Amino acid sequence: MARKPATLRDIAKLAGVGVSTVSYVLNGDEGRVSPGTKEQILAAARELNYRPNAIARSMAKQKTATIGLIITELQNPLFVPVTEGVEEVLRLEGYHIVLASTYDLQSEINAIELLRAQQVDGFILMSLSVHLPSDHLAQLDADDVPFVVINRDLEAGLFNQIHFDDRGAGRTATQHLIDLGHRRIATISGVRESTAEYDRRRSAIERHQGWQDALESSGSPSGEDWVFAGNYTYEGGYRAAQQLVAQARNSPQPPTGVFIASDMMAIGALRGFFEAGLRIPQDLAVTTIGDPPYAAYTIPPLTTLSLPVVEAGRVAARLLIDWLKFGKPAQSQQVLLDFELIIRASCGASLKT
Amino acid sequence: MARKPATLRDIAKLAGVGVSTVSYVLNGDEGRVSPGTKEQILAAARELNYRPNAIARSMAKQKTATIGLIITELQNPLFVPVTEGVEEVLRLEGYHIVLASTYDLQSEINAIELLRAQQVDGFILMSLSVHLPSDHLAQLDADDVPFVVINRDLEAGLFNQIHFDDRGAGRTATQHLIDLGHRRIATISGVRESTAEYDRRRSAIERHQGWQDALESSGSPSGEDWVFAGNYTYEGGYRAAQQLVAQARNSPQPPTGVFIASDMMAIGALRGFFEAGLRIPQDLAVTTIGDPPYAAYTIPPLTTLSLPVVEAGRVAARLLIDWLKFGKPAQSQQVLLDFELIIRASCGASLKT
DNA sequence: TATTTTTAGTGAAACGGTTCACTGAAACGG
DNA sequence: CCGTTTCAGTGAACCGTTTCACTAAAAATA
Predict the structure, then answer these.
(1) Nearest CB to B99: which of A56, A99, A142?
(2) What is the reported pLDDT for B241?
(3) Sheet-wide strand order for A285-289
(4) Disulfide engineering: A107 pairs with which of A102, A271, A299, B188, CB 3.0-4.6 Å?
(5) Eight-state DSSP code of residue B6
């Protein structure tokens, strides 16, 4: 095995042709070279165990066929499906992905700088929960760097953006309980407590509005008294569940269902309900939003709305590809994606049938 | 903002010097250039908003300052901490990481080919559960490509390898129950059922041996009758728990503790125990191995052994850096890492105090 | 002052591909 | 048979850096 990898020149020498011919053959440019020499070159390449140097190619073509995927919070279970969606689309087009994980504004800027230095052809930026200012995005835009953002609360119409329909999700999750015959439906939401993270608050507000929408349109009681703050955390969900139980025990008309605005809170709440001796879903039906792998393994498994995150990845990739191929779109694209309802045991749907 | 990014030549022209001088200044080569011109060059670079082209640099230096991290099963929650460990060490040395996820042999080979074409300076390969043949690793070795493998069952001494002490983990998890006063300790293991995935079987066997070790050294009854096959899955753990409960109900001397060889099985088993009306840990104390994020959120939270996976990443990175800096080590390195005991509620330790 | 050393800076050759402009020969059309 | 087109293939410039070998002037040394 050669220490130094073989180059086009080596092949050219071995096959007795010019380097440009070799290049044409190896890149499959048909009709430029006769079958005879073509075969010779291929044989020489095989013999020398040739492996094209992507760096040199990028240098010459002024393209890397690589896009940067920047994600906040690598820990978040949503990140894997996004990359899957992105990868699925980009691979077909011959692009590669390089991944960068960030956790705050500065590290995001660093990541962008780094990847620009690596000459990526474009970016996909996905925020899972953090809102970040958009100055540096405006900069990207000004520099004519192709990019798409997912789930980020920015001035509409400014960039190519993909969003999740949080309000619709809150509505669907609540409506599902209504459809199962529930009339008094509480909620554990992130709204009441202020959060430093803007984006989280926005989605909390929207999901909460969805809950209200559903109640209103069904003519159910407004439920104002049955809102509990969970702060989007396991602990918060746990405490909110305790409060809910306490209030329900003193109420002549306790809720029979609860919409919990995030999976983490739902898992905490499940523990609270369990400790209080409540049976789910018999005593209280539960729906939530977010479908991490373990949502199927709770007791009982959670009925939930899954973020269409694979699809978000696909759409982002397609938007980016279009830009790369046909130039910047005349006007920036806005996409709103629906959540998918996943029915498991916590809503009690199976009890009905 | 310039459409085309500025190059060294642009700066050289603007500052009225040669390009090599600019290169020296920008790379901080002290003492080669007078403070005056240095300042001029810096000013010019700032003005042109210069961003070095990493591709061109890699080309010239024949190094990319990038290493490839190849991981099977991106879904696995272990993957994030590995990359954290790797990143922590590599960043200090000025290296970047490019990530590739694989799921079978062919895709692993593809990933290696791809990254070699991208001219990465070295590899870290981490298997989380799949055993793959090593021919292509031997090839890497023959080509003098620096690499380190984590958690892979290969002929000892062949390559730089990092392993987890599965047997010690099984021993510790069981011993912890013994220390809490338990004498009859069952196990749910992956051993009895054959698995296609070799690696998984190996770790299953070792963890099982650890359980035996602990029982023997404590003079406890051997427990042969209390081994249940869980096949390393949620479903398997669930069924094994049912079998365990059934057998315990007919036994004059039922076990008071159980060591479950993987977190997934433990979560399934928890459900089985719950449905059977068993209280954990009062009726049965549980320990397991593996600490995914949700292990703290089960009911009750799991006492478990955490894989030192951040440390594995760090060690791998350091081994690789050494190779990169000082050349291939005279003999390949072998590292065995201990698991860390994380005490939560499922073992009942808190009840004792 | 004559000689050596240091300082400050330079031009050009890599690195490994791609691609443009070009050529000589063969094939073709009338 | 001549002019034109197609075919098969080539050399060299270029992409943006790094770095080697070199120089002219200044500084240090004797």
Answers:
(1) A99
(2) 98
(3) A227-229, A185-189, A257-260, A285-289, A303-306, A340-342
(4) A102
(5) P
